[in-house]
Design brief:
By secondary structure, this protein is an alpha+beta fold. 41% of the residues lie in helices and 25% in strands. The protein has one domain (2-77). It starts with a helix and ends in a 6-residue tail after the last strand.
C-alpha cells in the first residue's frame, strides 16, 4: 500500500511541470497580469511572443512560458502617467 502511494506521489511530481506548461498562453497571461496588479504595478504590458523573438533587453523580462514551451510571455514596465 505504501509503495503504491509513493509511486503515485512521485508520478505527480514528475508530471507537474508538464501540466503547468500545458496552459494556454491567454490563461497564463491573465494569471501573471493579476499577480502584477496585486503587487501595485499599474503601468506595464505583457506580450505573448514565439521563442525566437523572446529576449530580455531594454527593460523587457521573460515572465512565463506556454504552449509547451513554444511561446514566452514578456513583461515590460512603462512609466506611470503623471498625475
Amino acid at each position: 500500500m505504501m509503495t503504491s502511494l509513493i509511486a503515485v506521489v512521485a508520478s505527480l511530481l514528475v508530471a507537474a511541470p508538464v501540466m503547468a506548461q500545458a496552459k494556454s498562453c491567454e490563461e497564463l497571461k491573465s494569471e501573471i497580469e493579476a499577480k502584477i496588479k496585486a503587487n501595485g504595478v499599474e503601468a506595464f504590458t505583457l506580450e505573448i511572443v514565439v521563442n525566437e523573438d523572446a529576449k530580455e533587453t531594454d527593460g523587457k523580462k521573460i515572465v512565463g512560458s506556454c504552449e509547451g514551451g513554444a511561446k514566452k510571455i514578456v513583461y515590460t514596465r512603462r512609466q506611470a502617467p503623471a498625475k
